[in-house]
Amino acid sequence: MEDGNYFQELKIKMDKYVHLVYRVTKSFPKEELYGTVSQLRRATLSVVLNYIEGFARAANRLSS
User: Fold this and answer.
1) What sign for the dihedral angle of Cα 28, 29, 32, 38?
2) How many domains is the chain built from?
3) CA 56, CA 58: separation in Å to the nearest integer?
């Protein structure tokens, strides 16, 4: 599998994952909006961004 294609597919899957978490947390009680919901959403984004950053670093090392 080509790295560029893999990276594009990865971005699409991660985007779907983030949207899924946002949809699921929308159904949480309103009193959890600034507690559990906020933490889950931030953690999800953090995982996605860290994964993509790590992939980019590895790709840069391979191309050097």
Assistant:
1) positive
2) 1
3) 5
